[in-house]
Write a structure and sequence with these properties.
Strand content: under 5%
Distance between the termini: 30 Å
Shape: globular
Helix content: 55-70%
Largest sheet: none
Number of helices: 8
Number of strands: 0
């Protein structure tokens, strides 16, 4: 796609979500799952396009629309748990470990009403390094390096 195909009028049509960073941060893990494909396509475009940010405006709109649709669902189904969690994050300088009680409440609502779980399979398939012994961690690292070098 050429950047010349995007008019400046099209750039002026951009609509902001009207959501502050705190609710987005509170819902970020669930949002990341819901909009993973759109985010991946956007990041691939940004990586491939070089330095002109206009090259990926359409992909960026897809991400924005996905985020808007997702947050509309969250506000409809889990507004108060999200509000309590976001307020806690805001008051606790955005430190999630200080807000576990409200986070659990929000996560339970997301699971029950939207079917979204915070348990992500793409990093839960391996035991975290801090739970391994040093020889196990080195052995796993070397195995991963060998696999990368094969390809």
């Amino acid at each position: 796609m050429s950047c010349e195909n995007i008019s400046w009028e099209e750039l002026d049509d951009y609509k902001d979500l009207g959501i502050t960073s705190v609710p987005l941060m509170a819902a970020a893990d669930h949002l990341g799952q819901a909009c993973k494909d759109a985010n991946d396509r956007y990041m691939l475009c940004r990586n491939d396009s070089g330095s002109d940010p206009r090259a990926c405006l359409r992909e960026g709109r897809v991400v924005t629309n996905c985020t808007k649709q997702f947050m509309d669902k969250v506000y409809k189904e889990c507004k108060m748990p999200l509000a309590r969690y976001a307020t806690c994050l805001d008051l606790q300088t955005r430190l999630p470990h200080m807000c576990r009680k409200t986070q659990v409440e929000f996560d339970e609502c997301m699971l029950q009403k939207l079917g979204s779980s915070r348990n992500f399979t793409w990093y839960m398939d391996k035991q975290p390094a801090y739970m391994q012994t040093w020889p196990e961690a080195i052995s796993e690292l070397m195995s991963d390096v060998k696999n990368v070098l094969k390809h």
